[in-house]
Write the structure tokens for this entry.
Amino acid sequence: MVTQEQIDKLRSAPVASPSLIIDGRPHATSDSMPVVSPLDGSTLTQIPFAQQTDVDTAVAAARKSFDGKVWSSLAPKARKNILLKWADLIEQHAVEIAVLGVKDNGTEIAMALKAEPLSAAETIRFYAESCDKMYGEVAPTAPDALGLIHKEPVGVVGIIVPWNFPMMIGAWKLAPALATGNSVVVKPPETASLTLLRMVELAHEAGLPDGVLNVVTGDGNTTGNALARSMDVDILVFTGSGATGRRLLEASAQSNLKRVYLELGGKSPHIVFDDCADLDAAAAAVVAGIFRNAGQVCIAGSRLLVQHSIHDALLEKITHLTQALRVGDPLDLNTQMGALNSEAHMNSVLKMLDGAAASGGQRILQDTGGFFMEPAIVAGVKEHDALFQQEVFGPVLTVTSFTDDTDAVRLANASELGLASGVWTNSLSRAHKMVAAIKAGVVHVNTYGGADNTVPLGGFKQSGNGHDKSLHAIDKFINHKTAWIKL
Ligand code: NAD
């Protein structure tokens, strides 16, 4: 159990200038970039700014380790034990890492602790356990042949992650990529790199062989682009915006046709029917579903769809709960909504709210130098309004009323995105019909969020084309090789 005292001690600890880790060793770069803390606008430290040559060196180290089979030829149980040790180390350093991450990206600490180091450790354990439980297959052939299907690691995996939950999302990709025997180059987000750098250090402390996991920090246009266009990266797995996702597909087409898996944005409908058994619970879930991590959550339930007859009652409850949210210092254990990740991002959210009749939505706590804003509720939003259609990725909830089930489904699906959704109803039959009708990777029923590693998370429509989490994620990182033997 973490205490405020522990956090406060770490709050003022200076942040060292990290190095890239390539081939198991610190790698010096000629350029660096500042890390600006969203808590107060101060410069925390400098991180390396990897250029094309640094990325090439990292990819070459990954290739050498893969071709040398230093990882893939270890007994599966040995790979498992190293990954389990890594998870243990992350857990042992969880408070230190969570505080470092909060200073870097502004997420409220209670959530950061759970969603970042602890969740990353849990994910690594999940896939570590798969190492010695994955079997090949024997095909149901005619008796004159034997068809064997071997699962082989693909090679060098490039991983690019966003800043909202870099460790959690990083682990969703790193853990299955490594468990299956691949080598990796990971690029953290430029505005939240520190925790992933630390995570890679701990992987080496756990015994991961040199060159198997390399990290390059820097921006998207230079560092990310160099990774995406590398002729020696076999798979690119990405979480981030749709705009970047499109550029990665182009990069693949213009380089070596590497496989590209995209987990992109969301504009998720959170639907409340008038037969909802517990309107207070629904209201609390709607508020948490949009405002945790200041709405910077891919599955944020950003579009509330509420049945006309309960619209006013629910809106009143939601407004009341939202106004009571404790917004501010992300390193206070009682804070429920922290800072936005960067000044530029905060300004883009404020701009999207410009002219909207919002309750809340102003910049606050400006005297701290940090990037804070009030949670905003915008009622009466119509299907074709920009706020209904565009991902804000900030603390903004739109409210739209519907008449019946058909209207609810129509509105829920009236988006190019299809990542997540939620439905509150007391009818089992309606719940199942909604699960079938909503075009999204996950439909939460009488709850919102909270799914664990056992189930996949992936977008429909323009929310992406891959799946993180669950054993299904493993398929991205293996080649199925057939041996066809004449008997
Ligand atoms: P972003 O696309 O701007 O950046 C994501 C990563 O891509 C960063 O590391 C960035 O440096 C890199 N990048 C940017 N341009 C690049 C390029 N040309 N080539 C290679 N790499 C490049 O996204 P963001 O603002 O960091 O993250 C927010 C977005 O991520 C939102 O749209 C959000 O919904 C989405 N997201 C999706 C999920 C999911 O699971 N589907 C989870 C979290 C966030």
About this structure: Residues 160-164, 169, 187, 189-190, 219-221, 224-225, 228, 239-241, 244, 247, 263-266, 298, 391, 393, 419, 457, 459, 464 surround nicotinamide-adenine-dinucleotide (CB under 6 Å). Residues 109-128 form the longest helix (20 residues). The chain has a mean pLDDT of 97. The chain is about 35% helix and 20% strand.
